Every structure is written in C-alpha cells, then in structure tokens.
Amino acid sequence: MGKRRPGAPTLEEVAAHAGVGRGTVSRVVNNAAGVKESTRRAVQRAIEELGYVPNLAARSLAGRRADAVALVLTEPDWRMFAEPFFSEIVRSLGDALADTGMQLLLTLVRSEDERQRFLEYARGGRVDGILMMSVHAGDQLPDMLAEARLPTVLLGRRSGEEYVSYVDADNVGGARNAVSYLLKQGRRTIATITGPLDMYVAQCRLRGYRDALEMAGLEGTPSLVAEGDFTEESGRRAMADLIERHPEIDGILAASDTSAAGALQALRAAGRRVPEDVAVIGFDDFSLAQRTEPRLTTVRQPVEEMGRSMIRLLLEEMEEPFVAWRHVILRTELVVRESA
Amino acid sequence: MGKRRPGAPTLEEVAAHAGVGRGTVSRVVNNAAGVKESTRRAVQRAIEELGYVPNLAARSLAGRRADAVALVLTEPDWRMFAEPFFSEIVRSLGDALADTGMQLLLTLVRSEDERQRFLEYARGGRVDGILMMSVHAGDQLPDMLAEARLPTVLLGRRSGEEYVSYVDADNVGGARNAVSYLLKQGRRTIATITGPLDMYVAQCRLRGYRDALEMAGLEGTPSLVAEGDFTEESGRRAMADLIERHPEIDGILAASDTSAAGALQALRAAGRRVPEDVAVIGFDDFSLAQRTEPRLTTVRQPVEEMGRSMIRLLLEEMEEPFVAWRHVILRTELVVRESA
DNA sequence: CTGAAAGCGCTAACAA
DNA sequence: TTGTTAGCGCTTTCAG
C-alpha cells in the first residue's frame, strides 16, 4: 500500500515557515479567536505557499470529531433508491448539514458482511453520527448502534415502541385526513394500496385509512386492501387486482405517489375516468409533480423539515450524548390538486 | 462537541489484560502472521472481554490507508440518481470492493462549497481513492484530484483526450452496431435521441449513429437528431418532436433505456406500431427489463465488468501511485429482444 | 497573544 | 515468537 501523499507539509513545517509556534498555526487553521491579525495573515501566507492541508486522521485522533455523518441505506432501501422521496430526503439532509461543515457519507449495507464492516467503521470513530431512513421493523442495526453509544437518528420508526431517536411524519393522521376527504366527496367504496407491511410507516397509513372509515361508521373490507411496496409497478398490479375484485371502487388511497401513479395507469387501462369515476390520493408528491400526474391530490410530507429535524436531533445527541432519546413527529398536509 | 465513546478500551489496555505486549495485540487484530496460536487466542479473549474496537483515526495516522474509497456524485449526476444504470453500477462497485475490506462512501457534491469540502476530506486522507461516474465535460474535479495526487478513476471520460484513469464502454461502436442493425432490417429513416451533449458519452453515441449512416452511404439529417438527457420524460418529448418533423421515421436509437421507454410511449400515443412501423433500440437495459418494455432491443454495457475494472484500476494506482494513467474500454453487446 | 509540551491510539521497526 | 519504542500530525492545556 503506497504511503499517502508522502511529502505533504505538516503543521510543524508551516509553523517553521511562518516563524511561529505550532499552536498558533492550529488556531489559525481552526479559525479560533485570539490571534493577532498580522500573525494570522503571516500564517495564512505560509499555508498558501506550502499548500498545507490538515491531516484529518491526526485531527480526529487528537480528540475531536470526525466531521462526518453517515446515512445508512440497508438492503430494503435499495429499491427505494430510485424513488423521488429518497433523493429529496438526501438533498434536504445535505442542505441541513451544509452549515455544520460535516461531510454526508452515504453507505450501502446490503449483506451481513457489509453491516459488520460499517459497524466497525462507525465504532472506529470515522463518523460522528448515523442517520437511517426507511427502517424495516426487524432491523437490528439501530440497536447495535445504540449499544455502541453512537448518536443515531432514524427517519421513521420500526414500531410504535421505537426508542432510538427518530423523526417521523404523522402518517396515521395524514391517511385519515385523506380518506375523510374522499368520504366527504361522496365516495363510498374506498380501497387502499399499502406499502410493504413490514414497515411501520405502511402500517400507520393503513391504520389511518381504517380509522377514517370507522369514524364514518363504515365497515372495513379486507379485500379493499392491497399490499404494494411503494413502487409504480406494485401500484399497477394492486390496482388491477382491486378493480377485478371490486368494480364498484370509487376511491383510492395509495401509500406513495409512485404507486398512485401506477394505480392511475391501471385505472385508465381499465377504462375508468379519473377522478370522475375514481378518485386517487397518494402519499408524497415528488415524482408526480415532475412527471405525468401533476394534478394528483397528495398527502405531503414536509421533506425539508424532516431533513432539518434529523440533523438537529443528531447534533443534540452529539452535544449531550446518552441522556435521552428524542422524537419528532411532523404534520402532513393534504394538497388538493384536482382540476375543476 | 462531546468526546467520542469516552471509556473505549485501547490496544494498550487489551495488551495489559491479556498479559502481552502492545505489538502482539496489534498483530492479532490485523491478522498478521507470526503469533503463537495460544497467544492469539488469549488476546482474542481479552478483546472480547473488553469489547475492544480499533480506533480508525489512530490506525490511519500511524501511516496506513484509510480503508475507504469515495464515489463522488456531482450535481449533474443527481437526476441520474433515479436511473437504474446508476444503482446497478453502485451495486457492482460494492461487490467488487467487498473483498478488499474497504468502505464505499457515496458523497454528493452539488455546490462549489461542497466540492471544496469534499476536496479537503479527500486530501485530508479520509479516503484512499476516488471514483467518479458520468463526468461532465467541463468538470474540473478530476484535475484537482489528480493534482492532489489522489488515486482517481472515472467511469466515462470528459473528452477524447482524457488523461485521468478511466473505464468506459465502446459507445461509438455500440451505437454504430445498433444503427447498422436497424439498416439491415430495412429501416431507412433513422432518428436518434441523444443524451446531454455536454457529456462525452452522449457525443460518442451520436457519433456512432452518424458513422453507421455514413458507412451505409446515407446522409445524416440534422433534424433527425433530438437532444435528450437520458430520462424518460426527455425521451417522450424528443420523440414527439421527431414524429412531428419526420412522420416517416421508422427507426430510433435512444441514448438510454429510460429515454427509449419514453420514446415508445410517445410513439404509441401517436398511433405508431412498435416495432412494425418503428423500431427502437436503447442503450443499457435495466429499467426496461424490469418494467414495461421487456422486449426492447438494447445495447448492453457490461456493468459488472465496469465496476470490477474501476476497482482494479484504483487498486493499481494505490499500489504504485503516479506512474501512469490507466484506461479500459469495454465492449458493448447488442441484445436483440424483439418478439417474432 | 503566543510557544512549548503532553498526549490522542496505533503501526512498524528493532531488539531480545 | 514477542516486548519495546519511536513516531504519525494534530489539538489543547499551561505557562509565559
């Protein structure tokens, strides 16, 4: 293994070149206060002239932070990689992190082997904190991270009793509002296309659907529930099944915008008019707004706020570790976009 | 900033606990040869008992590698994030890296600020090498990395005179073969939907298209070339334009499978039969195989091989730095999938 | 405001 | 086969 950048100048050399002590250079590099302006300038010139770049390993070792946080993507996320919700969240995390000077590192954990490797990486101190998104119910990684006392924040929870810090949307409420809205429109046979039911988020949206029906005094019909996995293809397939089972369907709640798009395709293929014959509401509103269904009514999650909240919680945990789990549940908003 | 894992045991403590010297523990941890089996076992027990985890910063500092490589995604990549080609490449890189014990870190570089931060991160020695994909012609980052003497490998090149190490597919040849195939079928009015023409890969595919026409003694018609950006939406739009300008079109080469899918939609919407009236060939074959167009003929890039090659080149550069740029150009394959 | 010095935890070279 | 030791480059007291 070739040594890294063999002749790279060190703090020491910069100090010598500038005719000051090591500590002073360190202060300048870290923008610490208490350095005479002229000295600072002299040091800065020396840095320029020598092309000095701080050695991050040394900095880390000397007892400070790694200045990086990892966003872990476990295997089940993989398919969602292509979902707009995913990239929007990543984008918002990047924005939220911009001020902190920390690097956002996406890491893929697909096998047990990779999980172990990542754990070593994190426990080895290469990151100051860990973010996870779309956690599946049975995922043990958050527990392992918690055990290693690593600041961790989840997007979504694994169950109602999640203890690791998380940021989540009010999925039950969002779904309930959506279905109530459909009922208010006079729809009576409302079906739902869920997400993968091993994810708590999907369970919550399903619960909201059921709650709304119950509140309206209607009885839930099991055959009006079709499991999907958030993807467009699953939406198409689920919708096709639903139409066959219940030709009288006049309303749909889909657990994602993408599966809603699939549902719309299947409905049109079956000759239904949307939204005259059948109204569709989906969760999230990224892909559709940009693509083929700009007029779909959606339950919007506050993505920017989610990213910001995750970073805020993470920073709090880094600041004052191991004192408490922190939870944030953000409100959703029904965005009505039906054309007149 | 809270100190990281304050009470974490060190090598020293493990050594004391096991009643051996520090060096011995280091050897055991690193699986080095030359340790008596009984000693090794004793050390391993001590490690278990104390829950020792090596401090990676210290390890890095002590003169070895960072055991991590970064895959940089610059702003223009961002849209491709959702493209199947992207996730397939990432997957193959992960596989290729699995043996090496290195962490793959995806980093997003969207702004000048983030570019600077990443540069510091890389020059600071947090990664042993850098991979970049879908580099745009004007991107300076590879030069900066080269200047910093950081092992770097690109997927694709910025121009015909690329010097930084890269792995690329034979895009000209692939496009030429595809168009020749269409010509052999008797198609005579062949259009192309390109990728973003500020990317060399898109230029090459366009060149291949033109070469094939020329070889057949046909004249290239500028209005048969529509610029897209690899996305489905761009394919739809470009195709719609092309049909309007040239209703007689009977063949299409699309620069990606995704834009080919968009083209197919536009063709069907215009009442054309595919492939009877119009034949379509796209580059890559991921999304379509999994989605709606399993029978599209495609120019297949050897994704697995691309990932493997990139890692191989990177390892070579790390091993023996700064001696040469290395280039690999992989053959493409025309995968005919028309139904009878 | 600045310099000197004590580590941070590990690897690797050298003795033993 | 193993123990000892000299750094790796930086941050951070503590004097001055």
Overview of the molecule:
Two copies of one chain form a homodimer. With 340 residues, the first copy, chain A, is of the alpha/beta class. Chain A has three domains: 52 residues, 434 Repressor (Amino-terminal Domain) (Orthogonal Bundle); 130 residues, Response regulator (Rossmann fold), CATH 3.40.50.2300; 130 residues, Response regulator (Rossmann fold, 3-Layer(aba) Sandwich), CATH 3.40.50.2300. Helix content of chain A is 44%, strand content 16%. In chain A, the strands form two sheets. In chain A, strands 2-1-3-4-5-11 form a six-stranded parallel sheet, sandwiched between helices. In chain A, helix 9 links the parallel strand 6 and strand 7. In chain A, helix 1 crosses helix 2, helix 5 crosses helix 13 and helix 8 packs parallel to helix 9. The longest helix of chain A has 17 residues. Chain A starts with 10 loop residues before the first helix and ends in a 5-residue tail after the last strand. At the A-B interface, helix 4, helix 5, strand 2 and helix 6 of A face helix 4, helix 5, strand 2 and helix 6 of B. Chain A binds a DNA duplex (16 and 16 nucleotides) through helix 1, helix 2 and helix 4.
